[in-house]
C-alpha cells in the first residue's frame, strides 16, 4: 500500500501517559532529533508532583508537548495536532488540548476495563469504541502486545520489556514525521552501554515501532516539516535551567571569580544543581546545604570570601531566605538569588508554573530592602539574563534576583549559542591591600555609583567588621544615629536606582511606539504575547508589545513608553503583580489580565483579550 | 594552617577601636581577653583570621577583634562559615555563638556543620539564658527555671550540648569556662590544632540575668569537688587534694575514694579517642543538687581524625580537572549536538 507524505509548516504533538511510562524521555528524544534536523521548536513538559502517582489515574498523567516547525514560533502551541496517549487517563486529561480533526494515537492496552475504571470512565464505556471520538482520527496500537512480541526472545522480564514501550511509540512517531532513528540509537547505546541486553531491547523496540508505521496498513500518511529559516548560525537545543547553569559558569569565567553554588533541593530549581555539580572541572563548587537558610547562608560566606556566590530556590524556599537576603543587602556583597517560580502560596503547585513571586522579590523582606530584579523570557534567555544578574551583583555589590519559572525552566528551544569571546567581561573591584602608614581602611566608602569595594579576607590591612546592624556610613561601625539610618536607607535605595544607568533602555518588541494598546509582559509569557501581538498586527489591530526584563530598577524610558498608549494590558500568570507596580510607579491605568491555572497562556487567549480591549 | 608571619602581632593588635559594650562583669570579657592572647601564638596571619557570629550577647564578639569579622543573623553563623570555608579553605575561621544562637534557632546548622566537619572552631558561650532579650530561659537552662517567660518555672527539658554534638558526629568536643583563663587558653589551642570542626563549650557567667549559674564549678570552696579536669592518658581524679577517682563498673561510672587504698591504675584512664567513653563523660551532667552526682568534666572529651568537607570538595575539583581536563567554556556553550543554518 502506498504511503503519502503531507508537507506541513507547524506541528504540535502532545505525548501523555503515566508518569512512569517514559513519556518525558520519548518527548525529549524526539525533540533532539527534530532540533538536529533544523526545525524551530518549543517544548513544554507537564508532570504531576508525585514521582510515581498511582498508575493509570488522572493524577498520574505526565505530558510532554512539543511544537516544531519550518516557520519561526514562540510558544509550544496552544492546541495539539497529534495526541499520543498511553492509557485512558492520559486521553481523558488531555483531549481538550486536541484540535478538531486532530490525530489520536492510543495504546489500546491502556484502555482495558481496569484502566478505564482508573480514569473514571463509567462502567462499560470505552471512548475508543463508542464513537465519542469521531471528530478525530483515531489510531489504536496495542503497544504493550507488540512490544512483548518483539522482545519475546530477549530473555528480559515482563517489567523490563514493559519499560521499553516508550521506545515503540517514539519509533512510530519518528516514522510518522519522517525523522531518522540515528540520534536515538546513539543515545540508547550511550545510556545502556553497561547493560547490553537492555540496550538491544530498546533499540529493537524503537525499530519495531518505526517499521510498524511503515508496514501497517492503517497508516497511510506521513508528515514532513521542512527546516526552519532561522537566523544563520550554529544552533543547539537548550532548556531553561540548563541555560541558567551554563550562564553561571560563563559569568564566573568572564569575571575571573570562582563559582560557589549553595542550594537546597526544590522543584523546579534543582536541575541547575544537577547540571552545575557536573562542572567540577570548571572549578565550580556546589554545596547542597541542610536547608534553604543554610543554602543562602553558605553563599553569603562564600561571597564575603570573594566568590561569585549563587543560591537558587522556588517561592517557599525564597521565603525562608528572606532574612538572609536582607543581610547580604546590608553587607553590600554580590549575591545572585535564583527563583524558579511555581504555583503558590505555601507548597502550592510544585510542578506547575506561575509568575508567583514578583512582589516577593521586590518587597518580600523586613525593612527597606531594595534588591535588583531581572527576569528571563525564554529558555535560552535564561543564559543571558542570569549572566546579567551576575554582572549587576558583582559590579554593583548587591544581591540580585534572577526570576525564571517552571515553564521556561523545563521548556526548551533552539539557541544560537555565543562563543566565549562574544560575552562581556564582568569587572569585580577588590579593595587593595594596605601597607603600614596607609590610612585606615573604610569598608563603606563608595564610588560615584555608590558602590563599595569588595574587601575579602586574606587581604593585608583590610581587617574590618560587617554585620546586619545598621552601619555608620563610610566606617561601617555600628550606628544607631537617627540621621545616619535615614541616610543609609536612602543610600542603599539610590545605589539600586543607579543601576538604571548601566542597563539598556526598554525596547518595543513589536508594534508602533505610540498607539491604542500596549501589551506589557515580563518573564515567560513572552512567547504567547509575541505570537498574539504578531497575529493581531497582521490583522490590522493597533497594538504593541513591550517585554520587561529589568524589573528593578526599570529602564529609564519605561514611563515614557507607557504614556504613549491609550490603553495598557498586563497579562500575567498570577493575580496581578507587575500591574500593581506599574500603576504605583507610573500612575497609569494598566489593566490586569490574569491566568492562575498553573499553565501558560495560549497565544489565542491573549489575542482575544487584545481584540476585546480594542473594541471597548 | 600554620604560616610564617612577616611581622608578629600581639594581643593588643587584636583590639579594635570600638568600645566593648557587654555589661560590666560579664564573662565575655574574660573570653575575649584569652582569645586575643592565644591567637597571636597560633601562627596564623592576622588577615587570614575571620570571626563569624550570629545574634546574641556573645555574637558581638567580632566587633572587638581586629580581624575580618561578620556579625550575621540569628543562628546562621555556622552556615555562613561553612560557605566561607568551602570557598576559601586557607582561612582560619572562628564561629562565636551562644546557647540560644547555636542550640535553639541555629540547632539545625550546628548539627550539620559538625557532621560535615569543616575545619573551623566553634566557641559556644553557654550562659544558660537569653541575655540580649533580657532574660528568658534558653534550651540550655535547667528544668523549672524561673524567668520572665517562665514565671512558674520552665517546662522544657534542656539540651546536653556536648552529648548533642557527639550525637552529630563531632570530631572534637571540649568544655572550659570563662573563669579559668589558663584552661580556656589551653583548650582554645587544642581546638585550633584539631583539623575539623572543633566544638568548644565555654561556661560563661551572665551576671545580670543568670548570675552564678556555674559558680559551683569556679568557686574555690566547691571547684575541687564538683569539677573533673580531663587529661589524655591520665586517670579521672578529682576532689579535695585529689582524693577521689572514677572507676568503670561495666558501663557505670563509680566514684571511689582514693584514700582507702584504691590504686590510680584501677581508675578510668582518659582516652580522647574513645567514642564510647566520651559518650559516658558527656553524660556526667546531673545537677549538682542531685545526691551522688558525678563531677562535671572539663577539657577535651573526644577527638577524631576525619576528612574535612572543604578538602574533599577541592579534591573532587582537582580529580575532575585531571580526569577530563580544565573546563572549556566554548565546548560547554556548544554542547554535544549542534546544527547549522546556512
Task: Tell me what you see in this structure.
The complex is a heterodimer of chains A (616) and B (342). In chain A, strand 22, helix 19 (578-586) and strand 23 (591-594) form a beta-alpha-beta unit. The longest helix of chain A is centred in the middle third of the chain and has 20 residues, at 196-215. Chain A has 3 domains: 4-223, Pyruvate-ferredoxin oxidoreductase, PFOR, domain III (Pyruvate-ferredoxin Oxidoreductase, domain 3, 3-Layer(aba) Sandwich), CATH 3.40.920; 236-422, Rossmann fold (3-Layer(aba) Sandwich); 508-615, Multifunctional 2-oxoglutarate metabolism enzyme, C-terminal domain (Rossmann fold, 3-Layer(aba) Sandwich). By secondary structure, chain A is of the alpha/beta class. In chain A, strands 11-10-12-13-15-14-21 form a 7-stranded mixed beta sheet, with helices on both faces. Helices cover 36% and strands 21% of the residues of chain A. The model of chain A has no long low-confidence stretch (mean pLDDT 95). Chain A is globular and about 90 Å long. Chain B has a domain at 12-213: Rossmann fold, CATH 3.40.50.970. Helices cover 30% and strands 18% of the residues of chain B. In chain B, the strands form 2 sheets. In chain B, strands 2-1-3-4-6-5-11-7 form an 8-stranded mixed beta sheet, with helices on both faces. In chain B, strands 8-9-10 form a 3-stranded antiparallel beta sheet. In chain B, helix 1 crosses helix 6 (181-193) and helix 3 (99-105) crosses helix 4 (107-116). The longest helix of chain B is centred in the last third of the chain and has 16 residues, at 309-324. Chain B is globular, with a radius of gyration of 23 Å. Chain B starts with 26 loop residues before the first helix and ends with a strand. The model of chain B is unreliable at 1-5 (pLDDT under 50). Classes of the chains: A alpha/beta (616), B alpha/beta (342). Chains A and B meet through helix 1, strand 9, helix 9, helix 11 and helix 12 of A and strand 1, strand 2, helix 2, helix 4 and helix 10 of B.
